[in-house]
Specification:
155 residues, alpha+beta, Arc Repressor Mutant, subunit A, Alpha-Beta Plaits, four-stranded antiparallel sheet, 5 helices, 4 strands, 35% helix, 19% strand
Length: 155
Amino acid sequence: MLDAIDRRILGELQSDGRITNHELASRVGLSPSPCLRRVRQLEETGIIRRYVGLIDASAVGLHVTAFVRVRLDGQDDRHLSAFEAAVAEFPEVMECYLMTGESDYQLRVLVGSLAAFEDFLRQRLTRIAGVSQVTSSFALRPVVYRTAIPVDSAR
């Protein structure tokens, strides 16, 4: 179980992953050594999976976000595993979820242009064995985009 200090540590690290241990300790009300021990424990238990830099997609030429719903012609383990392995290899697929409802999967795809999306769709996604239907929607602009997990809400 996470206590209040662990939650504060997680909140601070999600705001600034490059914060020094000394500053982190100060913000969460610990001395540096116990703070570092807690961070290491959060890392070892897998609560903190990794540290990354968040990049502005538009600044690197990736202007198109598409949400793609995919239906497969079979929902057995073989079909699901084959699809999941294939899309895991596509760097354009930022997220992929197994879904309930009308589609089997929902993907968030990030590309530079509509032409690049068409190429991704026609040359890669629809060529995966078992894909029977694809429906796409395009994001006009982000309204809410978060990377921080609401650790205080998870009680």
